[in-house]
Design a protein that fits this description.
Layout lengths: L1 H21 L4 H17 L3 H30 L3 H22 L11 H13 L2 H33 L1 H16 L2 H12 L3 H25 L3 H9 L4 H12 L1 H24 L6 H10 L3 H30 L12
Helix pairs in contact: 1-2, 5-14, 6-7, 6-9, 6-12, 7-9, 8-9, 8-12, 9-12, 10-11, 12-13, 12-14, 13-14
Length: 333
């Protein structure tokens, strides 16, 4: 025991002398000259201690490499201004292609972009846009809310309980394969031409897709966190709220995007069948008078609202609710 203490004392003295000499050199050379000192430590260490030292050195090297890689990725990542320029350039390219097609087709089929945008300004300035788009947004929002209310618990239960997965899988798959047009026709025949038919058609059409997205997302969550919650005797409600739902945020946001896109299509179809207001009704009016300009104008207003919802609401919500998650840099050019 005394010999071991004396050997540690000699090593500490050698360390003090060596470090005073090493300080005279560059930082990089000092890091290299410290390795023999560490080797003298490991020569008297137990095998378990050597493993710990080597693991710590490896962790430092890996953390430094990952940190430098993340910094390099952030330097290469395009800024918000450049991203906005690329998106605006994409829209301008589509408008330019539209303008080029006007040279090959008559105005009754492909009107000029300037004439169409003038129609859009007229629709907005007269106030017609707000009343018609408001009716469509109400139908989409209510139907989508009903679908999410049933799809979230259904997807979570199917992903956590095997028997419920086997029981609900066939009707969910069958509901997903049913065309939205068929659901719209059946809803109108069952409820008549009223708001209930629009709500039902939207909800029944998009609910299977939302449930499947959340079902697969629940099956892919980290099982270790579930086991940890069980070890701490968490209640079933706490497991869902504190463990499962935070890991399903990305899947829920993806389901919202896909669900809203499909809900718009369904509600416009329902409005075309006989409603007296809404974007679909206005599109049918343009079709009845064979006015391509009016049809495109209402379609453009529809697209503008979708862009605002996607980048202004869903994008902002995603940045807020996923702020706690570590950022993963994807490899891409």
């Amino acid at each position: 025991m005394i010999e071991v203490i004396l050997s540690y004392f000699k090593i500490s003295v050698n360390l003090a002398v060596s470090q005073s000499d090493i300080g005279k050199f560059h930082v990089a050379s000092s890091m290299l000259t410290e390795k023999p000192i560490n080797n003298r430590f490991t020569s008297i260490m137990a095998p378990e201690e050597k493993t710990l030292v080597l693991g710590a050195d490896t962790a430092v090297i890996v953390s430094e490499a990952s940190g430098s890689g993340a910094r390099a990725a952030r330097r290469k990542e395009p800024g918000a201004v450049w991203t906005f320029i690329l998106r605006a350039g994409s829209i301008l390219a589509m408008i330019g292609l539209w303008w080029c097609l006007t040279f090959f087709f008559p105005p009754s089929l492909i009107p000029l972009p300037s004439a169409t945008f003038s129609e859009v300004i007229s629709i907005v300035s007269t106030g017609q846009f707000f009343s018609e788009m408001g009716a469509t947004l109400r139908r989409v929002g209510v139907g989508f809310g009903i679908a999410m209310f049933f799809a979230i618990p259904l997807g979570i239960f199917m992903g956590t309980v095997k028997s419920l997965e086997s029981f609900f899988e066939p009707p969910v798959i069958l509901g997903l394969t049913m065309p939205g047009l068929v659901w719209a026709v059946m809803a109108i025949m069952f409820f008549g031409l009223n708001e209930t038919s629009a709500y039902a058609a939207v909800a029944v059409t998009i609910m299977p897709m939302l449930a499947i997205s959340l079902w697969q997302g629940t099956k892919s969550i980290d099982k270790d966190l579930i086991d940890m919650s069980a070890a701490f005797h968490a209640s079933p409600w706490s497991k869902i709220v504190d463990v499962i739902l935070p890991q399903l945020i990305s899947h829920i946001l993806a389901a919202i995007r896909y669900g809203l896109g499909l809900a718009w299509k369904v509600v416009v179809v329902v409005e075309m069948f006989g409603f007296s207001n809404g974007v679909g009704y206005q599109v049918v009016r343009g079709f009845n008078v064979f006015s391509m300009k009016q049809v495109l104008a209402w379609a453009i207003t529809f697209l503008i609202v979708m862009i605002v919802i996607e980048f202004g609401i869903i994008g902002w919500l995603e940045s807020k609710v996923t702020r706690w998650r570590p950022r993963i840099e994807a490899w891409r050019r």
